[in-house]
Amino acid sequence: MRGINSPQYRRILRSMPASIQVSVLMTVFNTKIAYVKRAIDSLMSQDFQQFELIIIDDGSLGVNCEALMHYVEKYEDKVTYIRHSNRGQGESINRWVSSSSGKFITILDSDDEYKPNHLSSCLREIVHYDLICSNTETIVDSADDYYIPDKNDTTKLIHLDKAVLFGTLFGRREVFEKLKFRSGFAADAAFYERAKSQFRVHKVDLRTYIYHRNIPGSICATIKKANLTNL
Fold it and tell me: Is 45:113 a contact under the CB 8 Å cutoff?
């Protein structure tokens, strides 16, 4: 494995400005503040620190919004907090990519977290590519949680390792500037599929992104529950 001090890794860092190399975009909509804090803290604990975090509050309500604003004050040198009316994760990311500063862009879902070496691992892997996605370390309540609705037929289930998740996308900013996320289920997978025809893409088995699959209100969980109910 290429180490953090390898020639290839040092070369990619030398080609960047000295300050912000990676822009991390996080959308929040009424997510439990404990989950958001966990996500933010995992980012702040990275072994690679040349990043910015753009939190896009997608119309959260009341106390949750106030608590989040208060919490990010402790990281104000690295965090930009933006708020707008509710419009969904994909559109929120599309809108604020142009406001980011990094040469690379990635996403952190507000109820997930990074292992401490996530950003540095992604930077090592992307040397020969424009966009990567990865498999995850997945937190589940049961083995069934490893399976999610197939984007081509939501009545069928596929293993998570065959899916593409928003949070594991990591790419050069031109990819995110040229391609836009579409609305609806599996917008992340659709983005990755469209990128294949225009950019160098690759799926890697890092498992440095921790996906909390046991969050009951997620889109995947909701669709899966509805389909199982109708069987």
Answer: no
Rounded CA separation 121/24 (Å)? 15
Residues of the chain with pLDDT under 50: 1-5, 9-17, 219-220, 222-225, 227-231
List the domain range (segments joined by +) for residue 221. 7-229
Which is nearest to 82 in space by CA: 96, 101, 97, 70?
A: 96
Residue 177: inside a domain, yes or no?
yes
The percent helix, strand, coil of the chain (3-state, each to 5) is 40, 25, 35
Does 221 map to a domain?
Answer: yes
Domain count, the chain: 1
What global pTM score does this model have?
Answer: 0.85
CA–CA distances in Å: residue 101 to residues 4, 12, 48, 105, 172? 23, 16, 16, 9, 12
Q: Looking at the DSSP assignment, which residues form a beta bridge with residue 106? A: 24, 170
**Would you state the pLDDT for residue 137?**
97
C-alpha atoms less than 13 angstroms from C-alpha of 182 in its C-beta half-sphere: 11
